[in-house]
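Weekend entry, working from home. Most of the wet-lab plans are on hold until the incubator is repaired, so I used the time to fold the two sequences that have been sitting in the queue since the last round of cloning. Logging both here for the record. First:
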Amino acid sequence: MQSPAPKYLHLGPDAALPALEGLRQFKTILVADADVQQTMMWDVSRWLIESGCLYALAWGKDCEQWREALEDAALEAVNYEDVPDERGVHVTAHEEDDLEEVFWFARHRASHPAELQQTLILHIAATQRREEIEAQYRDA
């Protein structure tokens, strides 16, 4: 079965966080093309987890710090208690990979016990590149 096209969302480095409508349990590919304040990194991480992100792949600037923030937000959301595998959050950082490799991994290998059907490409940058990024994802 073919999974639906990903949802692309562009956020500026200091943008307000919108409601994530139409997503429930989902996978996020975080494309960080801009530096952000640490407080925004934490706010975005908590927002993603609270919105239902169960698998996050971080790529770009400070992707290792993004991984840590997302993992901490996931732990904080369950009061640092153990959760069943299907509710656990998986997070990866892709510091050494090209974006095309991250997209390929997200489409073909990144799996979760909850069988996530929806993907969010969260692009944090000064300007959006929707068409280019969506084409790279499709070609992966």
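Second, folded right after the first finished:
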Amino acid sequence: MKSWDSDYSTRGRLWGGGVRNLPDLPEGTRVLELGCGDGKTLSAMPRSWSIVALDISLPALRLCSRSHPQSDLILANAERLPFKSESFDGVFAYHVAGHLFLPGRRALASEVSRVLKSGGKLFFREFGWLDMRMGEGQEVEEATFLRGSGIITHYFTESETSELFCRLVPASIESNCWNMRVRGRYLVRSQIEAIFLKGWE
């Protein structure tokens, strides 16, 4: 948490660019975003949704509140969500689980399953094993690396993603790769994208 607080306090907005291919959800859909950071994904969400966004970093939420005063922003840990069961139609977990160790990822998955309504959906994105940064830094857990900022990043496979959210039904899981030009070189970025459905009980 201190690493995130430091980054957002000293560097301000950390994440540039836009978020593509958000799902088309009905007006009034109650949505939870985990790890909203400085509001990159939140910026792309339609105002017709009923949105709650949380982050573990207060400096991040302060950045968010300037550009998204209409959203409910909460300081909370995605491993212990402060919501009643069956509270949300959709949960977005974009690049948040990958910054947790395995027990934390499992806790997040359990909490997502708990707060989703029956018939609700989880929208998940994380970096995959083929990503250009895989292997950079100190390996502190399998496929999990600590870099200079003090923040860890875990790199996922499709099968691991399915296993992590085993309480939900996978609607789609796929790996997407694209080239990014860095200092004249083309390097591969890799992302796991998945949608999971909570079955009717």
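Plan for Monday: verify the second prediction. The chain has a mean pLDDT of 90.
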